[in-house]
Design brief:
Blueprint lengths: L4 H13 L6 H11 L3 E4 L7 H5 L5 E5 L2 H13 L5 E4 L11 E6 L10 H14 E11 L11 E2 L6 E5 L2 E13 L2 E11 L5 E11 L3 H10 L2 E9 L8 E8 L2
Parallel strand pairs: 1-2, 1-4, 2-3, 4-5
Antiparallel strand pairs: 5-12, 6-8, 7-8, 8-9, 9-10, 11-12
Length: 249
Amino acid sequence: MSVSAAEETVIWHDVENGSYGADLSLWRGLAARAGGPILEAGCGTGRVALDLAARGHHVLGVDIEPVLVAAYSERAEARGLETRAERGDIRDLDVTGEFALVLVPMQTIQLLDGADERREALTSLRNALRPRGVIALAIVEGDLDANAPGADLGRPLPDVNEIGDWVYSSLPIELHEDAGRIVISRLRQIVAPDGDLTEERHDLSLAVLDAYSLGAEAAAAGLAPAGRREIESTEAHVGSTVVFFEATP
């Protein structure tokens, strides 16, 4: 089986994110109370947005990766869901004043490079909201507690996906801070049908951020604090804080 670079991007995204469900009950509850259309910024292949669309919500997904947007659209069509995804940059979204709820799961805001880019993103998200609309952003806060810089993640189980006779496995192996970024390292392994094993280390880098600092940046973008919720860690994923902001009049 020959896999293109685009197909491999989708595969690894699904392996490392597709099985995560610790946050879904929160997004479902927010969607049920939203009373209007929902935007998911950083939708990937649709883990959250397709789940909400299947529950009857009007959802638009936006992601910067065109291959993930294409996978989202194919899956929505296959399931007969009336939802769509568009390619878009969270820092400059082409939507204005439409949404009752904007969701930013999986630390997407921390992928950006510094406070200036976050302020651009928060302003863009603010502009997408209806009056009194709500933004919910998931972050990993800077205090890593038990997962302190350099800490070993113990012996978690890998995330695994079988595609035909091929096996894709991603094992979290380390979490540490480096130059103002949180680095989450995984060992990616591919097992071919003949048993041949290939592997490589993959690092995901997130900006060190806390709810207080994010709140100050949000205020500059015309957003007011509206609470927070905690999501517990799992064997393969660190815990997160979901911070809520409301569009000020």
